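Nucleolar protein 14 (Glycine max), 947 aa
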Amino acid sequence: MAKSSKRSVGTSTTDKKKKKSKKFGPEGVAMKVKANNNATASNPFESIWSRRKFEVLGQKRKGEARRMGLARSLAIQKRNNTLLKEYHQSAKSSLFVDKRIGEKDEALDEFGKAILRSQRERQLNMKLSKKSKYHLSDGEENDFEGIDSLGRDDFEDEMLPDDIDAETDEKLDLVQWSMQIPGETSADDGEENRHKSKKEVMEEIISKSKFYKAQKAKDKEENENLVEELDKDFTSLIHSEALLSLTEPNKMNALKALVNKSISNDQSNKDHMSATRTMDNSVQEKPDDYDKLVKQMGLEMRARPSDRTKTPEEIAQEEKERLEQLEEERQKRMVAAEDSSDEDNEDSEKPSEQKPRSISGDDLGDSFSVNEQIMTKKGWVDEILERRDEEDSSSEDDDGEDPDNLGSSEDADEGSNEDLDEHKKDLSLKDWEQSDDDDIGADLEDEDDSDENIETAAEDLDEVKGLDAAVHIRAKRNASVESVKKDKDSSDAKIDVVGKQSKELDIPYIIQAPKTFEELCSLVDKHSNDNVILIINRIRKSNPIPLAAENRKKMQVFYGVLLQYFAVLANKEPLNVELLNMLVKPLIEMSKEIPYFAAICARRRIEATRKQFIESIKQSESSSWPSSKTLCLLRLWSMIFPCSDFRHPVMTPVILLMCEYLMRCPIVSGRDIAIGSFLCSMLLSVFRQSRKFCPEAIIFLRTSLLAATESKHVSDEDSQLYHLMELKALKPLLCIHETVNEISPLNFFKIIDMPEDSSFFTSVSFRASVLVAVFETLQGYINVYEGLSSFPEMFLPIFKLLNEIAEQKNMPNALRDKIKDVAELIKLKVDEHHTLRRPLQMRKQKPVPIKLLNPKFEENYVKGRDYDPDREQAELRKLKKQLKREAKGAARELRKDNYFLLEVKEKERSLQEKDRAEKYGRAKAFLQEQEHAFKSGQLGKGRKRRR
């Protein structure tokens, strides 16, 4: 231990010597000088500060330095006065806020404050419950007892007379006037701050009340004088002849009674009643429009809440249940008819005349027999129909209409029903060339209504269980028409025909979807067109897709079979156009239900048709133009799928196929031109929505016009057309050499059924009809492509051909007018485009020289100064710089505030730690002392234990 201590002492002495040697070296002297210089420079007491008399912002004097210590101390003092106080008060909630009335208004004296407080107290008392109204005071007198009694403190809900109300209002006004704040009284008094005594206040109230009473009496006297003057003027006016000429004679007594007051009141009342009666009679004779409207509104049905809108699944379920119920009833009737057949035979051997029995409401019509006579007694159905007819006739009589109009309308309906078949058979080319601009939904709704009417009519005949009731219903419906036009024998014959048709009509309500083409043919064969559509609709309703997942597969198979049936039907001769039109609606609806499968079926058929076309075009003997089946399918797909899409999986191949037909098929006969014009019209309906350009259709129409000319020379403009139409042999197939008496519309489906070598295609009427179709299609393309910038280049050659065709000798006048209209339309559109066009010009605008910039050089340049010539931009830049500087200063001040608060919190925490340590030390010392006393035997400190 001694050695180690000596070593440590030795080492410490050597270290001290080394430090002293370092300090007294040359480097030590230099460091000492630097330290002295730094000490003198940073000594704030050796710097001289001169206090400025005036503080000027932004002014700096030479040699003046910032007083960092003073600025820091001032900032700390400011934070102690503001931020530190807010910090100390942030955790306190016992702050006093003086909210007494009038304390913040220095203009009020103590008396004015007391008046305001008393008014506030009275307002609060008025809002108390009804019990407070009858609460008696404890005998304390108020300074304003008399004034308080004048207010409406009690019985506010009672109705008082007008005079009392006026008096109370006057008293309240007086009270308010007398209780004005002394500082707000008029300047004429001169005693603003003087407190008035109770006597003075009451004197003022009495004087004011006397003034109001005198004013009221004066107004009343003036009103009485005015009434007397009016009475005198009225009496003089009554005796004048001008008023007597204008008044009615039955009212003269009333006027005299008002003037003389001698006629008794009874007489005047009688005259008044008689006058009112005459007026009522005149009004009743001519009812007003308002009275008519009121009567009509009283007879109208009031609106009642309806059921909620049903979902498609619920509608399909209800329809299926209805058909199932009808099918079950039909099966029961069939079984009952078979069971009763033997009994009918036995009864027929013993003929006996039976009296006609009445038809009850529960009669199902099962007891019908052939030999039974038609009952003349009316049943429950006839009574209902008669009731409806009576209501209709009564409503017509009320409206003032002629009841004969009903019969005429029914005649018109009957005539329209009889002419329906003839109208449907006479379909022309326009029925299939309709544009897609027309609302297909509206057409579908019309067809839907017709189908529903057909179906409901057939179902109504089946629902009435028995042909006897059906015969009575049909006879009742046609009763008014037969009474006007036909006799009794003809009506009986018509009833027999209807009975036979309803007997032959035996279509089940629930039909399973056919899986093959043969099954569908077995269902629809030997049925009319309406029944075929009825069968298809019942198949769809029997297998609704929303109700079961397996129904989707069934309907997909049925869709393919139905599309095949449509194609086969379109290929038959003669063509059943009516049934084809009726099949379009269910195909469109099913395509919406299964769109993906419908698109697949369409693409497969398009691919097969394209392959057949390629094979047929290689054979020069046969015609490669599309058949009626292909044309009907193309038209069907253009109605099912959207035509305005830029690229569509079905319509794009369809358009390309139709354009290929127009370009590659050779024109041999007039039949080919008719088919090509039909394809052009279909393309027009497709492109009318998308506005796409179709050069194939324009070229074909131009070729058709060339076929109508007699010129055989080839111009330079047409040579390019011949190059594009290399497969088409241009012949004057549409040239008219003879006069045409009448131009009939082109019946396209009639042309399709004709053979190619028919003489009809060389007739003049056919050529005129085709030219009319070509001109109408051309006019449609002109309207579609009028917005294209290349319109003149497309249609100017056609314009020249139209002028050449119009100059032919044998051209009909109607056709010549049509040609001139189309030519004028082309000329008008071409002129519009030419006026909008402007020729190209070289260097119309002067060349803009290169912008020259002066060098950025300043003679007396000052660093930091803005030399921008745009002063607004310079000011904006200056403001942005100042804003940035202020933002930095604000952030700096916030940081200093945070540092200040952190120091304050740290001081508080250190004081708390120090206090806690002192308490801990005192407690520990106390415990140690207790432990020491316990161990020492209660002897205390410094004492030795006795033995």
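Residues 461 and 470 are 6 Å apart (CA to CA). The first helix runs from residue 2 to 23. ok done for today
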